[in-house]
């Protein structure tokens, strides 16, 4: 199964540590050769944000290489502008609301969503997994739904927002729930059902066009993939690789379930909202919601259940050893939110410094060798 990853980043001033609306200048410094490995670079919603996207990959080593080189290229362009590249779900230090990125679509989004989108400096990690066709992809979305909050809990990397500790693990997700139709993807009977419901949301004014949804998983409007958008952007490349491996294995599991004729469970919508909230609030350090059994359980148990479900497919893909090691490290050190709070013992500026250091990785010899 093919996989690709999009990562969103913040640009921060090297002196103040606050975000800087310089996306156009940073992207303008990138050369065509910087994307030769398959990575692409794009604007995001606000002028303080940039995005790096890998090409289509089949092996985790190749994905890691492209993620690493994409981050290094963006970080170098940011440094040339007196800025730093930071992988955090939200802005750590206080800053004024930045302008929207250049482009008529970004302007329209700002006009429609008004105060909800002003200052929405939120960065996620989006994983694309190739699927055979749209009908299959919609059925896969239904099977992915119970696991989306656990992917969020693993990735949570936004405890600070505008200079304060929110007491949440992922404040990004709280910000995202202010948009209409956010949260766990609804159950769809078919691709036609999926398309009709998006068209209805556009007709009702909740979405500006058919290419926009706020669900945590969707059909990509651009590529023949399922796109999972539950995760905060990870401070480290390893965080993105782990999300990609787990997501691809969950898609493999969904396809196996479909091959056996097993339909996805119909989930309680209110419990879906509760599960997303719990993952955002506590991350890995508290209670989660088991959406299949409809009762509360420790988040650590949900991680163990997810791993048990995907283990055969990780082994099939050759990813088992890498994911076991990455999960062990994450559970030992804590997710990004825990690491940010640990760094905050030196003040919030120390958090920004630590994030910038982890965002710009050292090129990996193992990844280079895999190419």
UniProtKB/TrEMBL annotation:
The keyword Ligase applies. The keyword Nucleotide-binding applies. It catalyses: L-cysteine + L-glutamate + ATP = gamma-L-glutamyl-L-cysteine + ADP + phosphate + H(+). Keywords: ATP-binding, Ligase, Nucleotide-binding. One of its GO terms (molecular function) is ligase activity. Its EC number is 6.3.2.2. SUPFAM superfamilies: Glutamine synthetase/guanido kinase (SSF55931). Signal peptide: none annotated. Pfam families: GCS2. InterPro entries: GCL_type2/YbdK_subfam, GCS2, Gln_synth/guanido_kin_cat_dom, YbdK. Coiled coil: none annotated. Belongs to the glutamate--cysteine ligase type 2 family. YbdK subfamily. ATP-dependent carboxylate-amine ligase which exhibits weak glutamate--cysteine ligase activity. This is Putative glutamate--cysteine ligase 2. It comes from Actinocorallia libanotica.
């Amino acid at each position: 199964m093919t996989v690709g990853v999009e990562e969103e980043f913040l640009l921060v001033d090297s002196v103040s540590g606050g975000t800087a609306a310089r996306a156009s200048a940073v992207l303008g410094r990138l050369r065509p050769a910087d994307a030769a490995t398959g990575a692409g670079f794009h604007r995001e919603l606000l002028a303080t944000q940039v995005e790096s996207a890998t090409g289509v990959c089949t092996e985790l080593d190749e994905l890691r290489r492209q993620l690493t080189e994409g981050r290094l290229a963006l970080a170098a362009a940011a440094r040339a502008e007196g800025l730093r590249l930071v992988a955090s779900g939200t802005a750590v230090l206080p800053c004024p609301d930045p302008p929207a990125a250049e482009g008529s679509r970004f302007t329209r989004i700002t006009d429609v969503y008004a105060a909800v989108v002003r200052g929405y400096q939120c960065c996620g990690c989006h994983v694309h997994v190739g699927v055979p066709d749209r009908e299959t992809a919609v059925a896969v979305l239904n099977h992915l739904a119970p696991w989306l909050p656990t992917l969020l809990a693993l990735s949570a990397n936004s405890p600070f927002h505008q200079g304060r500790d929110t007491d949440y693990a992922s404040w990004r997700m709280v910000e995202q729930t202010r948009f209409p139709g956010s949260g766990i993807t609804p159950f769809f009977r078919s691709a036609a059902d999926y398309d009709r419901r998006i068209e209805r949301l556009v007709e009702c004014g909740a979405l500006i066009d058919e290419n926009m949804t706020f669900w945590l998983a969707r059909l990509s409007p651009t590529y023949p993939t399922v796109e999972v958008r539950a995760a905060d952007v990870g401070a480290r490349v390893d965080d993105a690789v782990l999300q990609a491996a787990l997501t691809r294995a969950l898609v493999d599991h969904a396809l196996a379930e479909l091959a056996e004729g097993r339909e996805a469970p119909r989930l309680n919508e209110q419990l879906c909202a509760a599960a997303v909230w719990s993952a955002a609030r506590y991350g890995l350090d508290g209670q989660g919601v088991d959406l299949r059994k409809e009762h509360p359980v420790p988040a650590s148990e949900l991680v163990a259940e997810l791993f048990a479900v995907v283990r055969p497919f990780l082994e099939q893909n050759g990813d088992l050893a890498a994911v076991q090691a990455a999960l062990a490290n994450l559970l030992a050190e804590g997710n990004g939110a825990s690491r940010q709070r640990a760094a905050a013992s030196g003040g919030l500026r120390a958090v920004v410094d630590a994030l910038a250091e982890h965002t710009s990785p050292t090129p990996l010899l193992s990844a280079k060798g895999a190419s």
